[in-house]
Design a protein that fits this description.
Largest sheet: 2 strands, antiparallel
Radius of gyration: 23 Å
Number of domains: 2
Oligomer: single chain
Length: 281
């Protein structure tokens, strides 16, 4: 039997652990629950982990550690839905280590979590969204074009059943790999290198997101040597995407001032509408 077979992955787990991981799997099906643009799938991540964390900290004296664990997972997370289960399970294994060892560096949990977003999304999107979805659509269309109800039913079954099965497998794989790896890594001291690497990857990924997702469509111009020049070119001449960086640093500053995310979202919308109306955008 392969060491990565589902039975092998369940071996070595206590009955209560298996129960909690299975419960985690069912909750990962609600990956997009309460989706919002300040956290993306962060609420779904916290929802999947919540029963597990409550199980890790059953005593009243651990209330502060329990609250801290729940709070650090109600932040940004964005991942392809199937690979989301692997990320949740791996982070759950880290939370278990943190619960057992009070000296565990909990900063590594958030660092590793952020580093998983890019790779897991790339794998999941390539396999399920780009490849498998297109194959299944081609199969289902042969029936749908003939007017058969089998077409849409076949699409739903062929697309979703493999995803659900894969998600179940990845939940136990992520938990088992994470637990075994973290135990050996803690003994060898390699965990500090992982924290550093994960932090760098996370910062690079956030920088890439800023350049791709934040746009400042400035329409103002100025005259130079008798020629109209877009003002945006002046800023981009300093640093490409300079205004995008200014916007993101300003929003970060607002969050540090404890301004509620909804105020920031609606405030940004109001400013954009106003600037569009007066011709700035």
């Amino acid at each position: 039997m392969s060491q990565f077979g589902i039975k092998s992955l369940k071996e070595g787990l206590a009955p209560e652990e298996r129960k909690q991981v299975s419960r985690m799997y069912w909750r990962t099906l609600a990956a997009g629950i309460n989706f919002c643009y300040s956290r993306f799938m962060g609420n779904g991540f916290a929802y999947a982990l919540m029963p597990f964390i409550l199980w890790l900290y059953p005593n009243e004296e651990d209330k502060e550690r329990k609250v801290a664990a729940l709070s650090r997972h109600a932040n940004y997370w964005n991942c392809e839905a199937t690979m989301h289960a692997f990320g949740v399970a791996l982070i759950a294994s880290m939370e278990m280590q943190a619960a057992k060892n009070k000296d565990f560096d909990v900063a590594s949990i958030e660092a590793v979590k952020m580093s998983l977003v890019g790779p897991l999304s790339a794998i999941g999107d390539t396999i399920f969204w780009v490849t498998w979805r297109v194959i299944v659509t081609g199969i289902a269309l042969t029936f749908s074009l003939e007017g058969s109800i089998i077409g849409p039913i076949l699409f739903l079954l062929l697309y979703n059943i493999p995803k659900w099965a894969t998600r179940y497998y990845l939940t136990f794989l992520g938990f088992k790999l994470g637990r075994d790896f973290l135990e050996s890594a803690a003994k060898s001291g390699v965990i500090q290198h992982i924290i550093k690497a994960a932090s760098v990857i996370g910062l690079v990924m956030i920088g890439g997101m800023v350049s791709r997702m934040i746009r400042v469509p400035l329409k103002l111009t100025f005259r130079m040597n008798g020629i109209e020049q877009p003002l945006i070119n002046l800023f981009d001449g300093i640093v490409k995407g300079f205004l995008s960086l200014v916007v993101i640093f300003f929003l970060v500053w607002l969050t540090k001032k404890r301004i509620k995310p909804m105020y920031i979202v609606f405030g940004s919308m109001a400013v954009c509408i106003l600037f569009r109306y007066i011709g700035v955008f």
